[in-house]
Amino acid sequence: MGAVKRKHVMLLVACLQNFCCGGLLFGWAAITSMLTADISEGGAGLSRDYVHSIFVLGSSLNLLSPLVLGIVLDSAGPRVCSALSLLLVGAGTLLFGQSKPGFEMFVPGMALVAVGGPGVQSAIIHISNLFPTKKATATSIITGSFSLSFVVFLAFDLVWSRFRLSYSQIFTGYTAIVVVCLLLTLALMPDKPYTLKDELRKEIIEEPELSQKYAGKTVEDFEFSKLRLPSVWKKSANLERLPSVALFGRSNSPSASAAGLPAPPMKSRRGLKEESLQTQLSSGAFVRVTLLLMVASFWANFYIGTIGTQLGDQAYLLPDVQLSCLRIFTAITTGGVLGIPIVGAMMDSVGFPATCVMTLLLALVWSVAIMLQTKVALLVAFAAYSLFRTFLFTYFFGYLGDALGFRFFGITSGVSFAMAGLVGLIQYPLSDWGTGDCHLVDKPGCDHGNWDMVAYAQTATLALLLALPLFELYKQRQQPTQPAKTLYSDSPIVSRKLLAKLSEQYEGTEKTPLYDSGINPVRAYAANA
């Protein structure tokens, strides 16, 4: 039970940190009224243009920071990266809270919060390896806590409006919560990321009966599980079940069992986890998932920034209804976290290609629905958008960690987000081209803009992305194979020393987890070493 308690505590702490500090910036709209309110009302007395400029700078730094903090993660480990990220967030909330006329630190304060947030999440993704058979679900829970952090600033606004606390008191007081997260990181976070192989070994040492559960399994059974290749497609793929002594010397081959010897190891495709950074960055898996992130996140963020203008220019709803729809959109988007168990279960059960297809189908439902220009269709679009955004980022982290591992995870994810951030700059000219003037002057003959053409382009590009999961499936079926990691490999899940220890512990028992069809795995290992 020690291992069970440890991994659940670590997951809880990781989610707490991600919720409190990971995505604060994206709840920015909720505190706009507080920041623009007069100082006598507890506000900051800032202009709307100034408030907007703070967010623009923060959002840009937020996309670029994963690359820098990713280098820290890969070189110094998760404890240092997490502590540094939380320190940046805490310093940012403190500076922001202490800002006032004559000491205006609003911009650097929120910049620190924006820079530190992504590092908080990147430093805890590896905790999913504590759950070998539910790795994607654990990843979804972690990334979901990031989405939930959007409501923190909404809570700030509620405290300000109902309890009449000033923005300074709220931000300064919140620094204490960040400090608590920092202390938890220093006390619990490991210096090196958890690895799947090490966690399997620990489980077996603490609970030897698991040796029977894992009999016949290899590293690839966990690393290249249903996450990468759904069971419904495995039958026609090159990946086959291991017919040889694998984790504990169990033989699935009748002829091998009869001879008392393991069958020859199967062939299996080699993963990218042990390859160099250059090889990972030039791999097809990285290119495909980065392309998906660049295009899909571009349209997702573009809609957040222009939804008010789009509804105003299209003018198929009354102004009051438009305002209500914007509030509904914010609430539904936050509620997208409810889709996290769904996407996690999909990645665990039907695999990445099918999950990617579902993600893009949700995006297409959203894109087509906004073109229909009716209130009912708009609500459907909001729901589809909410799930699409949740699926997208959960899928990205789950796929990247599973395909490339965590050896260079900080850098690879950082490069992906940096490229998405650069592509995001196209939002400015595209928004200018699409914008009309009906959102400013609601009268006959006003310019409705080019939002219909923007929607057509959005739908077309999202539809083209469907080629990515189809190509992924094709590559999986054509992937060259090589011997899998087994008991006799250079890096087995269960070492000879561990096998000897467990064999000695169960020697003489009638039902030992280490015996199968009378084969002693320790002697089998020695005979084939």
Automatic annotation (TrEMBL):
GO terms for biological process: amino acid transport. Keywords: Amino-acid transport, Membrane, Transmembrane, Transmembrane helix, Transport. It is a multi-pass membrane protein. It comes from the Eukaryota. Pfam families: MFS_1. GO terms for molecular function: transmembrane transporter activity. The keyword Transcription regulation does not apply. Coiled coil: none annotated. The chain crosses the membrane at residues 9-31, 51-73, 80-99, 105-127, 139-160, 166-188, 285-304, 324-343, 350-370, 376-397, 404-426, 453-471. GO terms for cellular component: membrane. It is found in: Membrane. Gene3D superfamilies: MFS general substrate transporter like domains (1.20.1250.20). The keyword Phosphoprotein does not apply. Belongs to the SLC43A transporter (TC 2.A.1.44) family. This is Major facilitator superfamily domain-containing protein. It comes from Tribonema minus.
